[in-house]
Amino acid sequence: MCTGISSLCLCVRLKRQLANKHPPSPLQIVGANVDLNRMLLDIDNTRMTVDDFRLKYETEYTLHQSVASDINGLRPLLDQLTLSRSDLETQFESLREELVYLKKNHEEEMKGLQTQSGGDVNVEVNATPGTNLMEKLNEMRSEYERLIENNRREVESWYETKMEEVNQQVHTSGQEIQSSNQQISELRREYQSLEIELQSLISMGDSLQSNLEDTERRYNMQLQQIQAMIGPLEEELANIRCEMEGQSQEYKMLLGIKTRLEQEIAQYRALLEEGQQDLVIPSGGMGGGMGGGMGGGGGRIGGGGFSGGGRGGSGSMCGGMGGGSGGIGGGSGGMGGGSGGSCIIGGGGSGGGGRTSGGVSSSHSYSSSSQSQSCRGGGESQGYGRKSFD
C-alpha cells in the first residue's frame, strides 16, 4: 500500500508538471518505472500468498472432512453400544424377576411341604427304614439355592463387567466426540478466519489490479504526450544539426577563401610596397601599372598616381583588380573591385587611400547561399592611412 501511495504522489507531481507545461525529467520517469515494477512485485507476492492460503485451506478442509467422516463412523458404534446396554439392562431385570419368582416359588413349595408333613397321620410300616425325605428335600433345596446363588453371582459379575466395558467405551467415545467437536469448532473458526482473510486478499488484489491498470493507463497517456513532445524536438534538433553542418562547411569554405585572399593581399601589398619604393617625383611615368590583364593602367606619377581603371575579367577570384590610384598625392580608388565578374566570396575590394594622406575607401562584404553565390554590396566606410581587408 505504501508503494501505491508513493506512486499516486508521483502521478500527482507528474500531472502538475504536465499542467505547468513542464515535461517530467528522465529521472522521474525512471522512478515511476521503479515504482511500477515494485507494485507488480507486490502483486505477485500477494498472489503467491493467496495461493499458499488456498493450499492451507484445502488441506484443512480435507482434514475437516476426514474428522467428520470418522465422527460419522463412530456414531453407529455409539448407537450399537447404547442398544447393547439397553439389552443387558433388560436381561438383568428379567433375570432379577426370575430370581425373585424362583425364590417365591421355592418358599411356597417349602410351606406346602411343611404343611403336608405337619399332619397327625401315623403310619407304621414294618419295613426297613427309608431315607429321610426332609433331609433329601433340604439337601436339594440347599443345592438349588447354591446353584441359584452361583448363577446370580455369575450373572451379576457378568453384568457388572459388561456395564464397566460399556461405560468405558461410552466414556472413551464421549471423550473422542468431545475432542472431535472441539477440533471441528477450531477448524470451523480457522476456516472462517481463512475465508475472511482470503476475501480480504482477493479484494486487495482486485484493488491493486485496478490501481495498476489506472497507473499503466496514466503512464501510457503521459508517455504518449512525452513522445508527442519529443518528436518535434527531435525534428528541430535534426534541422539544427543540418544547419550546423551547412554552416560548418560554409565556414570552412569561407576560411579557405579568406586564407587565399590574405595570401593575395600580401602579394599585392608586397607589389605595392615595391612600387612605392620605385616611385619618382617627375610627372609622366609608368603607365599600365596595375592595368592590363588585372585592370587598366595609369601614369607612373602625376594626376592620380597609379591610376587604373580596367575591367576585371569574369570568373576571377574577386572580379579583377581594377581602377585605383595610389601614390603620395592619394587618389580615390585603390585595389578596388573591378566591375563585373561573379565571385564566390569577395568582390569589389576596399579602396585604399594614399600612403600619407587619407583617401576614401569602400569595403564590400559578400555572402553565399547553399545553392548559388552572389555578391552583395556593402556599406561605405571612410578611413585614413593604409586600408586593409577585413
TrEMBL record:
Gene3D superfamilies: 1.20.5.170, Single helix bin, Vasodilator-stimulated phosphoprotein. The keyword Chloroplast does not apply. The keyword Coiled coil applies. Residues 347-390 are annotated as: Disordered. It comes from the Eukaryota. PANTHER family: IF ROD DOMAIN-CONTAINING PROTEIN (PTHR23239:SF379), INTERMEDIATE FILAMENT (PTHR23239). This is Keratin, type I cytoskeletal 13-like. It comes from Coturnix japonica (Japanese quail).
